[in-house]
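Shipment paperwork, digital attachment
Item: protein structure file
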Amino acid sequence: MDDLTLYSDRLGYMNQAATTTLTWPPNTAGTHHLQYKLGSLAEHIVFKVELVGILLSIHILQNLVPHPTPWPKTALIALDNQAAISALSNNTCQLGQYLLDEIHTQLLTLRCMHHQLQVHN
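Attachment content:
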């Protein structure tokens, strides 16, 4: 079982695309919740919105650094989009590559800050 789970999902409401991420269990590190509105659904595909959700999850993890005691050893970023999950380990150039590059950069930074933390999806 993971010490911390981050749930990320996309939202489409009133022709607007957004993503939200929250942590569970709330008593581990407090409840953290982030939302990001990307804009029109016509301009933003589901895949891109899911990738932004992953970045929000990593952002929450990075900002937990000084707070929880003890620091979680495992964290799960829960996703429901198979394309986003597959893209994380695919090294070929693809749609949303700039977001994938940022995800990998932020994960590397997080691993440098916390060597024992294992993040998976």
